[in-house]
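FORM 7B: Structural annotation worksheet

SECTION A. Query
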Amino acid sequence: MRPASPVASDTAPRGGVVFSGLPSVPGAAGDDWPRPPGWQRNGHWQTIGAALWARRGVAAPLDWLRERWTTPDGDFIDVDHIVPPGAVAMLVLFHGLEGSSASHYAQAFAAEAQRRGWAIAVPHFRGCSGEPNRAPRAYHSGDFEEIAWMLARVAQRWPDWPRVAVGVSLGGNALLRWLQEAGAGAAAAVRAAAAISAPLDLAAAGAAIDRGLNRVLYARMFLRTMRRKAREKWARFPGLFDLERALGARTLRAFDDAFTAPLHGFRGVEDYWRRASSRRHLRAVRVPTLVLNARNDPFVPGASLPDATEAGPYVQLWQPARGGHVGFAEPRAPWDMRGDVAALPQRVMPWLAEAAGWPGR
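SECTION B. Predicted structure
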């Protein structure tokens, strides 16, 4: 049945937005989620605290298994996965910029997936699994063709389970772009999807991360590994891009203009950011999809987030006042100063199960 058109809900959490026509976010009505540890009073602390100090919902070390898949262009991607005995469903998670299966959110989703009896697979974007990739390309925020191939390959590898997908940050925007390009055909690959802290408007997100404190706290961190990868790429494929400009980049905008855009066939950073941004095409989505963005995300300005008129009938927007950038950790007890990132999958996965029509999963 086609979902009803979204309308604003009176049960939205304070500072947030919930729309009818799709499942409500479990437990969200009036509970002011998330409630981070008391010392995390702004989006920066919620972002950093979750990534560096929060628990990850993991009681014991995760037993990831790795497979290497050959891509159609002769390259490879590494896929980490956990398949619990008697698994009933599959969660495919796409990580963020320079992320991996070791990222805090990936570990939290893996732990919750095991608790629910779901298998989980984390396909690494090229160059993100600890080894340089072989082809004259990398990955980018609008890489919907790569998402399409990864999901098709997951379906071939594990054909017996129904699937849902989660994308985080860059992976969330890329997942949304695939959903938009695939339209109704996406339902053959996934029953439901969620994009978490996705930079839906790349120009706005790029401008935010490149200025002020963000440039010091985050842009430098990302650029450190990205410049190293650019040097490695040049050693294998000299002449693909301007190495001097890439190594001299001090902002993500400058790096994307020197490296990411030319490597993937874009005319420059503005062409890349415009074509890769998912905000303009949300109404093209035809699979139930949750789009979760905190309004105090340091990377994704609240003013750049879409409203209900842009979302379309298959997209559920949830925009809580707090959470930072993938910083949705909550304390286990009043005295818990670390918090636990398990709070994120414990909200998202029930929504996915209901949207996918999986009662009891």
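SECTION C. Observations
The radius of gyration is 19 Å. The first helix runs from residue 43 to 52.

SECTION D. Sign-off
Analyst initials: ____
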